[in-house]
Amino acid sequence: MEVSEAESGARVDVFLASRLDDVSRAVVQRAVRSDRVSINGRLVKRVSRILNAGDEVVIELPDAPTIAIEAEAIPIDVVHEDDELVVVNKPSGLVVHPAPGHASGTLLNAILHHCPDFTRPGDDPIRPGIVHRLDRDTSGLLVIAKTPVAMMRLSEQARDHAFERRYVALVRGEFPEDRGRVNAAVGRSLSDRKRMTVTTVGSREAITHFQVMDRFGKASQVSLRLETGRTHQIRVHMRFAGHPVLGDSVYGVTDFRAWGINDETRQALEGLNGQALHAETLGITHPKTGERLTFSAPPPVAYRRALEALSKLGDALA
Questions:
Q1: Domain 77-159 in this protein, CATH class
Q2: Residues recognised as catalytic
Q3: Does residue 41 carry a pLDDT above 80?
Q4: CB contact at 8 A, 208 and 235
Q5: What is the pLDDT of residue 318?
Q6: Identical fold between 12-59 and 165-317
């Protein structure tokens, strides 16, 4: 990995942790101490080694542990299924694939039970068939590949930004414009690796297009289209724009007591099951037939209740 101008001056452990998904800073530091990290062909001896622009950094990571992913009879909402793929409407609260702290009870466990012909495609034994992801508390449409060919071709579409992905969200306040875009690079927070942030250090280009659907004074409903697909992108971009997603315990708003709203509206907002963010539309090209397919799914009940309560609030303010 080559160090960019923006990353010059970063510590080697911070740089690698920001560049590598699902690799913690502690893992990087252990790799340094085990003589498995080099800069410009020379082994690194200090985790605090400062990088310069143009440095070539190489890390040798140990093989990922094999996890026996078991089929589990977890109910899932299947929107479409054929021999190559399955499209599901994931509920909020369901983790997509096994990970530390979530060894079971995931969407992938449910897929293994639902699809007896699932061939566990892909090079990642922990995430077979997973082409793209949704955060645990984001609901909506997700496509999973069932065969190696489908995995390869759908992954190419995702990499080339050929997926159509549209979301709806409830956010704080009102945008002054009816539509626009947020163009701000996203990377891992240097102070909290579990969080993402708008930054120039170890970041990647991130672009989110938005269109205001409804205005309610204290909140709005917006339609969002991803041009890129970074971790937590919409949630981070909405916070950056000054309109964080309602119900988002990490980047958004969960305390509505100071809003000066009636009890009905407050209770509806407090009843959101995670962030009020839903992947409503998914467009893909079928990996075998070449047909363009578009799927839609309505937001969950908790989202619709919050939207109805906000609509009444907006009517009262009009």
A1: alpha beta
A2: 135
A3: yes
A4: no
A5: 42
A6: no
